[in-house]
Amino acid sequence: QVQLVESGGGLVQAGGSLRLSCTASGFIRSIDVMNWYRQAPGKQRELVAALTSGGHSNYADSVKGRFTISSENAKNTVYLQMNSLIPEDTAVYYCNIRGRRRLNDFDSWGQGTQVTVSS
Predict the structure, then answer these.
(1) Residue 13: partners with Cβ closer than 8 Å, 6 or more residues away
(2) Which partner for 24 in 49, 65, 76, 89 could form a disulfide, CB atoms 3.0-4.6 Å apart?
(3) 67 Cβ neighbours under 8 A, 6+ residues apart
């Protein structure tokens, strides 16, 4: 079982910054993709940023130029640096990592961390 533990959420004023972290534990043979999703109240979960094993990143249009996804592969950790935060960024943020274990694939989710941006 691959478990993900997130940290770094909180309350911040508009224009501020936060950095989310997500660390995977358990045996991992390889990682295919690391994602950050978010879900605001009354809305569907949306993909915010993705980072492939090849180093290619993608971002939702709403966060391009403000958010940066990165990783420390040796620590099986993915980060989401969020700058110039706006109230519309308020949501629960979830990390998601997909890859391979010794005998099977895995698709694990973090517990979620609340990000609240005040105006």
Answers:
(1) 117, 118
(2) 76
(3) 48, 49, 59, 80, 81, 82, 83
Q: Which two tokens stand for residue 78?
A: 């993915």
- Nearest Cα residue to 79 out of 93, 65, 69: 69
Q: What are phi and psi of 75, to 5 degrees?
A: -105, 5
Four-point Cα dihedral 72, 73, 79, 83, nearest 10 = 60
**What are the pLDDT digits (tens) for 38-86?**
999 999 999 999 999 999 999 999 999 999 999 998 889 999 999 999 9
Cβ contact 47:37 at 8 Å: yes
